[in-house]
Amino acid sequence: MSPPSDSLSPPHAAAAERLRRARRGKGLSSAAEAARLHGWNLNTYASNENGNASFSFRKAEDYARAFGVRAEWLYAGKGAMKAKRAGLPVLGKVAAGAEALFDDDYEMGAAADWLDPMVPEDGIVLIVDGDSMMPRFRHGEHLIFGRRYDDPSPLVGQEVMARLADGRKMVKILRRGAAPGLWTLESINTRYPPIEDVELLWALPFQGLRV
Fold it and tell me: Where are the domains positioned within the chain?
């Protein structure tokens, strides 16, 4: 469907209210805060938000990208406020020794057909393959991980999906290593020894599972 023409002006009050709603939905407390964050002219943005001036569909697209809403909804009230998420991407499997086969480009597998309001939009899913993490995780379960931490310090003591500097990716319990910048990865299944004093590129926190 073609976007609305820039020559058409939506009713000021309704469009302004949608713009305020979109801004508040991103946790921004004021028009000034939004303008400062996104580098917009405050007078122009404030006039759009308070209804003193209309905005074009092209400008609606800019605002929509910034606030995570649909431009058609923002400009003319058409359709849903936000595009429906298809699901979290299934990126690979967790196999023997809790090492993960994982696609860094987020192109592997299909999207999971369920959503969880507690999982961030950049979350991922790994499928357990085998019994290497019994009894904590079972074959076929879907493990959900949250956003990436380049500095994994806040995740110490938690179950994580970690990428080692040598390229391996593993689901382990994160511990501090013997020296700053080094980490120990403790196996979830005690049959496997910990991997001690390794460098990590990043870690993702475990946030739940689905059967």
Answer: 12-76, 90-210
Residues in the chain with pLDDT < 70? 1-11, 84-122, 131-132, 211
Multiple choice CATH, 90-210, 1.20.120.450, 1.10.3720.10, 2.60.40.420, 2.10.109.10: 2.10.109.10
- The CA angle 103-107-110, to the nearest 5 degrees, is 105
69 three-class SS: coil
Contact 24, 33 (CB under 8 A): no
pLDDT (0 to 100) of residue 86: 58
What global pTM score does this model have? Answer: 0.53
Label residues 36-61 b or e (16+ Cβ within 10 Å = b). eeeebeeeebbbbbebeebbbbebbb
pLDDT of residue 5: 42
Was domain 12-76 assigned CATH 3.20.20.10? Answer: no
Angle at 129 between CA 127 and CA 130, to 5 degrees: 145
Cβ proximity of 178 and 163 under 8 Å: no
Where do we find the tokens 């120990």?
A: 184
3-state SS assignment for residue 100: strand
pLDDT (tens digit per residue) in 123-172:
778 778 776 677 787 877 888 888 888 899 999 999 998 888 888 888 88
